[in-house]
Design brief:
By secondary structure, this protein is of the alpha+beta class. The protein contains 9 helices and 7 strands.
Length: about 260
């Protein structure tokens, strides 16, 4: 245990074991009033926030001895691949599975992402994020029922860049930190822009390139980006999101100028 955490980690009088205090933002339903509850969790070296939440689920008793309903949260892969355990941990949006408790300052404060509707406790509804992906047609429409033969060859540098962009796992953190994304805005966000650039780079995906550009030139598209650059700093996968934004702005400009010249 780090010295900073050890100094803030009390010992349970009954068991003699070290515990970590968690302060959790709770909400019983989408329309319910939020409130805070605190829990003392037995400390295990190397434990992550998900392990602490599992311990609270096994024994949902608050720090002042009150039996309560178990905290609601989401997790799946536990190795920073699925993206669904995103939450605010000590004020910072990140993955709970990769947040190691002994590196955090106690009491550890857990909150749901604020840019998405709260379903319950730490669970949020990210449906709007996936609707934006559908709106921008971020897929390749090949049904796989027939043999297409060998795929087209393309530059290895392009392949490597496309691979970097493909690391997105729709965790929503880039949207959480974006000042242009939220309930009062139609902006689709960096994660959609990144996926549009990714599929426009793909030799087969280019067939729908113009449709994607049309979508990103409309309401909530790339021009609504205020260039705050919070997204690229917060991305847990280190995706070059600002490069994607710049590339898409260039592509939409070329596309609009070409259309204008064609109509003259």
């Amino acid at each position: 245990m780090s010295q900073a955490v050890a100094q803030q980690t009390p010992t349970d009088a009954a068991t003699g074991k070290k515990t970590v205090r968690f302060r959790i933002h709770r909400q019983d339903g989408p329309q319910a009033r939020p409130y805070w509850q605190e829990f003392n969790v037995p400390f295990t070296p190397g434990m992550n926030v998900i392990a602490a939440l599992m311990e609270i689920r096994r024994n949902p008793v608050t720090a002042d001895g009150k039996n309560v309903a178990a905290v609601a949260w989401e997790a799946s892969c536990l190795e920073e691949i699925c993206g669904i355990c995103s939450m605010r941990i000590n004020g910072r949006p990140r993955q709970a599975c990769s947040a190691i408790v002994e590196t955090l300052t106690a009491p550890v404060k857990l909150e749901p992402l604020g840019k998405f509707p709260c379903v319950r406790d730490l669970v949020v509804d990210r449906a709007n994020m996936f609707e934006h992906l559908k709106r921008a047609k971020t897929w390749i429409p090949i049904d796989g029922t027939y043999d297409l033969g060998p795929g087209p060859r393309y530059d290895d540098g392009l392949r490597q860049w496309q691979y970097e962009l493909s690391k997105c796992f729709t965790c929503g953190i880039c949207l959480e930190v974006c000042p242009n994304y939220g309930a009062q805005s139609t902006f689709m966000g960096a994660q959609v822009i990144n996926q549009v650039v990714r599929f426009n780079l793909h030799p087969t995906g280019r067939m729908q390139k113009n449709e994607r550009l049309e979508a990103m030139m409309g309401e909530g598209g790339v021009l609504d980006c205020g260039n705050a650059q919070n997204c690229v700093q917060a991305c847990p996968k280190g995706i070059p999101l600002t490069e994607s934004i710049a590339e898409l702005k260039r592509e939409t400009l070329v596309y609009s100028l070409t259309n204008w010249a064609t109509r003259k």
